[in-house]
Specification:
Strand order of the largest sheet: 1-2-3-4-6-5
Distance between the termini: 34 Å
Order of helices and strands: HHEEEHEEEHHHHHH
Helix content: 40-55%
Shape: extended
Number of strands: 6
Number of helices: 9
Radius of gyration: 25 Å
Number of domains: 2
Largest sheet: 6 strands, mixed
Length: 275
């Protein structure tokens, strides 16, 4: 089965999840990136966590967040790079933010005022909402009184690198959008931004790092194996479904016994009886 060709590490842009996670693992780099995106100075307390895994219960699916960091005010910033519009990103952001909120409280704690303010930032090279904006910021407000905010501390922000409302943003922000899409020496230099140049220095170190190169290869292989397993599982499910459909048609025809149908379709007698 043919697999997707591996792109070289030096060919990746910051819109690629691996490079984004590796770069943002550095506290100063993540701090500069978030400050540019928010157009507001943000200072993180410690090294961000990348690919942070959340599992609040063994019975609930595991959530993996790209990058999570906390600023000096205790606000939590978690960013996700998303290159593909899966059609469920808005509700996905709701789910991720809820899971992170649960993880912020100590087990058994009922003092919800201890919940940190949290900002979910999704960065994508497409416009989820189709309004042509670079940035969409959502906070809960009262429908009857639009000036009344819920003030629950939860904010969701969607960054669209292909916005067209340039007049609403700083030149540094606009240049960063270009740099995210095309992470080159030229775009870093042309930006005129010291922060973008410093981010690019980090990117260059990652691209030249043997350790990062090995990690990238391992990550790619893991994903390929997972895809292969998924395909094989899908093939098995397809074969099973075809067998059940065939058995159902045989039953409707009424010419064969259930035992013969089970034998010909490769099913158990109980499976045929349940049809």
């Amino acid at each position: 089965m043919e697999s997707v060709k591996l792109r070289e590490l030096r060919e990746l842009n910051l819109l690629d999840k691996f490079l984004f996670d590796e770069a943002m693992e550095d506290r100063e780099t993540y701090q500069m990136a978030v400050s540019i995106l928010m157009e507001n100075e943000v200072e993180f307390l410690e090294k961000p966590e990348t690919e942070k895994e959340l599992r609040v219960s063994s019975e609930i699916r595991q959530v993996r967040l790209d990058v999570v960091g906390m600023d000096k005010k205790g606000n939590i910033y978690y960013a996700e790079m998303q290159k593909r519009n899966t059609g469920n990103l808005i509700r996905r952001s709701r789910y991720y933010q809820a899971e992170l909120d649960v993880s912020l409280l100590e087990p058994g704690s009922m003092d919800f005022n201890l919940l940190n303010d949290s900002l979910f930032i999704m960065i994508a090279p497409f416009d989820i909402f189709g309004r042509g904006l670079y940035r969409y910021t959502f906070e809960e407000v009262c429908r009857e009184c639009p000036d009344l905010k819920l003030d629950d501390g939860a904010v969701r922000i969607f960054i669209n690198t292909k916005g067209n409302n340039q007049e609403d943003f700083s030149q540094e922000f606009l240049n960063f959008m270009k740099y995210l899409e095309n992470t080159t020496d030229e775009n870093a230099e042309k930006s005129g931004s010291e922060r973008i140049k410093k981010i690019h220095e980090k990117v260059c170190r990652i691209r030249k790092s043997e350790k990062a190169g090995i990690k990238y290869m391992q990550r790619w292989e893991e994903l390929e194996y997972a895809k292969q397993d998924g395909r094989e599982e899908g093939i098995k499910e397809g074969i099973k479904e075809n067998a059940l459909n065939t058995a159902k048609r045989m039953l409707e025809d009424g010419k064969l016994t259930m035992e013969k149908i089970a034998e010909y379709a490769g099913l158990s007698l109980d499976e045929v009886k349940r049809l």
